[in-house]
Specification:
Helix content: 40-55%
Number of strands: 8
Number of domains: 2
Strand order of the largest sheet: 3-2-1-4-5-6-7-8
Oligomer: single chain
Distance between the termini: 65 Å
Radius of gyration: 21 Å
Bound molecules: NADP nicotinamide-adenine-dinucleotide phosphate
Order of helices and strands: EHEEHEHEHEEHEHHHH
Shape: elongated
Length: 269
């Protein structure tokens, strides 16, 4: 499906057309066809013209998305990186020499402080940078995009262009919030890091659906469903590259231990 019922989000970026002529669709390049890259490229192709690059030339592309090589990707005015957080530095170093002045690079990493720093450090000064975290994926967006959070942080982007991108994502139905990377990571260590950690822990318990499942139990099974379809690499990266997840894991372990101690003491009394 290439055409959304919503007004074309691209019209907010390219505003040169007369009212009687449809404005040209925004050209976007997506780097990385992993689980999120494929999902996001398909989603964006409803609003823009999308070309995609994967290191694997045989990786399947979503309908409506055209394959390009790395040089072809560098020709796009906007490049969206859907790359494993642990692969970001390598990809930025490889892309940097081929980028044209004025190109906009957006990342989509689920942690923000380090990727924002890396982009600023490794991309040439004449390239624009918008750090983003689409806080949804193939599982959480199954019911639609309406109201799902989209975090933006302009690393190198003027206010007018930032406002246009904000509108672009809002027209997709997303709830856009501007947030400093440090604050994002501090909050995401719990909202996302804890959820994914508990999802993996619950999966280890090999919980089964049950006919007498309470609502609470069904919600626990939903956490597994929403977190464990993602790659292990994404899980490791979320836990390793967010500077606040170690504290989250320590607090969780201490909390489990306090509740167990309290129960043991009660049973001994
Ligand atoms: N999953 C989600 O729901 C979700 C939501 C929001 C944001 N994100 C973010 O999206 C990004 C991708 O996540 P994912 O779920 O798609 O992970 P994934 O399924 O593990 O895919 C990782 C992707 O990164 C590429 N990659 C890894 N190392 C690379 C390297 N050294 N050089 C070039 N490419 C490399 C892979 O390319 P190949 O296919 O060529 O190996 C693949 O496209 C991450 O930054 C993640 O934080 C994910």
């Amino acid at each position: 499906m290439r055409q959304s019922k919503r007004p074309s989000a691209s019209s907010t970026i390219s505003q040169t057309a007369s009212p009687t002529v449809s404005p040209p669709r925004q050209n976007l390049g997506v780097y990385g066809m992993g689980r999120f890259g494929r999902f996001y490229a398909e989603l964006l192709s409803r609003y823009a013209s999308v070309k995609a690059f994967s290191r694997n030339p045989d990786s399947p592309l979503p309908a409506g998305v055209r394959r390009v090589d790395e040089a072809g990707l560098c020709d796009q005015p906007v490049i969206i990186l859907c790359v494993a957080i642990s692969g970001m530095r390598e990809v930025l170093q490889r892309l940097a020499p081929g980028l044209k002045p004025g190109t906009l690079i957006m990342d989509t990493c689920s942690v923000k402080s380090l990727p924002a720093q890396w982009m600023d450090e490794l991309l040439p000064p004449e390239v624009k940078i918008l750090a983003t975290h689409p806080m949804f994926g193939p599982d959480s967006a199954r019911g639609g995009l309406e109201g799902l959070p989209m975090i933006l942080h302009p690393v190198r982007l003027g206010a007018p262009e930032l406002a246009q991108w904000r509108l672009f994502f809002e027209q997709m139905g997303l709830s856009v919030q501007l947030m400093e990377p440090e604050l994002h990571d501090r909050q995401a260590a719990f909202t996302q890091g804890l959820t994914h950690y508990l999802g993996r822990v619950l999966a280890e318990l090999e919980l089964e659906p049950s006919r007498i499942a309470s609502l609470g139990y069904r919600k626990l099974l939903e956490i597994i469903e929403q977190t464990c379809n993602d790659s292990w690499q994404l899980f490791y990266d979320l836990q390793q590259y967010n500077p606040y997840t170690r504290e989250m894991r320590d607090r969780l372990a201490a909390s489990l231990s306090r509740v167990k101690t309290r129960l043991d003491q009660h049973q001994r009394a």
